[in-house]
Write a structure and sequence with these properties.
The structure holds two protein chains of two kinds. By secondary structure, chain A is mostly helical. Chain A contains 14 helices and no strands. By secondary structure, chain B is mainly α. Classes of the chains: A mainly alpha, B mainly alpha.
């Protein structure tokens, strides 16, 4: 049964009352802000001077492309969004925007973001942005999400690509460093989303989305969270001994990784009652801080090196 | 549907008119940003705007 009792007759003539805020909500602004931030880091750490206008253009295109992917995702998931308390207030379940309107909006933005990035910056970045949108919408939303418990593991690649797109926009080529950033976000995604799924299991079960806690149960999910967190911490620290990022990043990564691991162990150990719920919420919240702080460290390093190279 | 409404076609409510005006302004602003962006990048790149690595 749907949480929101709203029905739009798609066959009847309809004049939209959707305002600009509804369309902005389709872009998933919070997801977009993380995408912009990780892309900014990819852009800044590239060893190439980028003109500020081109840097702004690249970030704008990546942001709009991510928003387009979000709108297309909502256009395709209106039915399950209506069944979940977390997503029931989105514009489509609320009846503000119809799925075809969201689809048209998303396709238009996807077209313009890819073409603008390709024409104004370079086609490697443009092609990667197109691939990112395709992967999120077709591979994750249409194929994986309703089919397998590995949906967010494989689909996480789409969320991990923005820094790679940004690096390509700056450098016009690819290198090891953006792929390291890709791997960090890729391995960060499962513990982050499975922590969310643990305290939203009922939501996902009601909507029939085969998230890991729904399919394999909470205990198996807790183990997977711990295993992926161990891999994540190792992958996030590795660029330091490998010589790609320096010791400030390495030490920060170790400290943050220790925190992430401690929260994951807490989730693994506490399995019943309010303490278990609190542990999953804490891991979810800390995982956002972890990724933000890790990428912010890289950003600060680059800025500090540019401002005071002698001290650094 | 009465005769008057049929003659006038679909009559928008105030809420529909207001939201349509908002959407139109947003589209105009977005197109304006796109024009400014293309102009600015052309100025920055100069003749190199035609040189795009594939």
């Amino acid at each position: 049964m749907s949480i929101v009792e709203h029905h739009i007759d798609l066959t009847a003539p309809r004049i939209s009352e959707a305002d600009v805020a509804d369309f902005i909500a389709l872009l998933k602004p919070r997801v977009m802000s993380l995408v912009v931030f990780t892309a900014l880091v990819g852009l800044v750490i590239a060893p190439v001077h980028v003109h500020p206008v081109l840097a702004f253009t690249s970030l704008l295109c990546i942001a709009v492309g991510a928003g387009a992917a979000g709108a297309l995702n909502m256009a395709l998931e209106g039915d399950i969004d209506a069944l979940m308390s977390r997503t029931a207030s989105r514009p489509i379940p609320r009846g503000r925007i119809t799925p075809p309107e969201a689809m048209a909006f998303g396709l238009t933005l996807a077209f313009f973001s890819v073409m603008t990035l390709g024409i104004l910056v370079n086609w490697i970045a443009g092609s990667l942005l197109a691939f990112t949108i395709f992967f999120y919408v077709v591979i994750y939303t249409m194929a994986l999400k309703r089919w397998t418990a590995q949906n967010i593991v494989i689909g996480g690649a789409a969320g991990a690509l923005p820094p790679v797109v940004a690096w390509a926009a700056a450098a016009g080529s690819l290198s090891v460093e953006p792929l390291l950033l890709f791997l960090i976000i890729f391995f960060w995604t499962p513990p982050h989303f499975w922590a969310l799924a643990l305290f939203r299991t009922d939501d996902y079960a009601r909507a029939g989305v085969p998230m890991l806690p729904v399919v394999a149960g909470p205990d198996a999910t807790r183990l997977q969270i711990l295993l992926y967190t161990i891999v994540l911490v190792a992958v996030a620290v590795a660029p330091w001994p490998l010589g790609y990022f320096d010791w400030v990043y390495g030490v920060t990564s170790l400290a943050l990784g220790g925190g992430m691991l401690a929260f994951a162990i807490d989730v693994y150990r506490r399995r019943e009652g309010r303490k278990a719920l609190r542990a999953t919420r804490r891991l979810f919240a800390f995982s956002i801080l972890y990724l933000f702080a890790l990428f912010a460290t890289l950003l600060v390093e680059v800025v500090a090196r540019a401002v005071a190279p002698s001290i650094w | 549907m009465d005769d008057k409404q049929e003659r006038n076609g679909i009559v928008l409510t105030e809420a529909q008119k207001k939201s349509r005006r908002q959407r139109s302004i947003a589209i105009a602003l977005a197109l304006g940003v796109l024009v400014v962006l293309f102009f600015a990048v052309t100025m920055v790149k100069g003749p190199a705007v035609l040189v795009r690595p594939i």
